[in-house]
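Researcher: Go.
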Amino acid sequence: MNTSLDCIPCILRQTLEAARVASSDPAEHEAFLREVLTWAGKMDLRQSPPAITQQIHHRLREISGKDDLYRAVKDRQNLMAMDMLPDLSARVKAAKNPLLMSARLAIAGNIIDLGVNGKLTEADVHLALKQALTEPLSGDPDRFQTAVREAHSILYLADNAGEIAFDRLLIEQILPKRVTLAVRGAPAINDATCEDARQVGLDQMVEVIGNGSDAPGTILSDCSPEFYSRFRQADLIIAKGQGNFETLCDEPGNIFFLFKVKCPLVSELVHQPVGSHMLVRSRGTQGELAG
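Model: Structure:
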């Protein structure tokens, strides 16, 4: 997915929010935003939005001297999500279709995205989980269930901290022994890294690998050879989050994307309104997106 002109206001909003996380000095916020505005005139719009965001955060880390600007926030998000897990696990066990119920809740957790909403509250997360119980799944849930049943090796691409705790519910249903969990290779906004997988106990359930990249998505050319090999060898890839969709939606392979639609451009691409819960197969595989 290429970056649209309509993406630029969102990118600038993210830039200012990240600058305010990095520093409390308004003068520094202004200086960094002016630098990004100058650079924006030269950005390659053929790149995906996560590739653009990756470059901005590289520069912000250089200026701030901080490797993981959102570490404290991610720690709180992981604790919040883990506190919710027992009740959600009970809901999955009581469901008529535990696999799809766990997928619904995992997708609901995709609301924990500071690239989209830097003012997210715990109440917002509770509301998203409540709505997930009745929210329709747009795409092809039936084909997803068949793909899960038939796969011998599954590569699960995580998205954000906090959200990664809800991924436990789905991984339990698809059998952990078949799953390798891939997280970001280095900090990217509030995206999950190996530290986040450890905090929510996923390292005790499945093999966890970093993808070698600090992009808030999966840019294959930026990932490690080990990850790329796992990606190509997997029978099934489950990709969480809109960033993974934006970077992999045209990629061939047996890929299913699980995410909430968070912007009008993605809404137009998947033919579903903003806020929809998507469980959709890669259009690189089937010619066009289901839904």
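Model: Residues 71-94 form the longest helix (24 residues).
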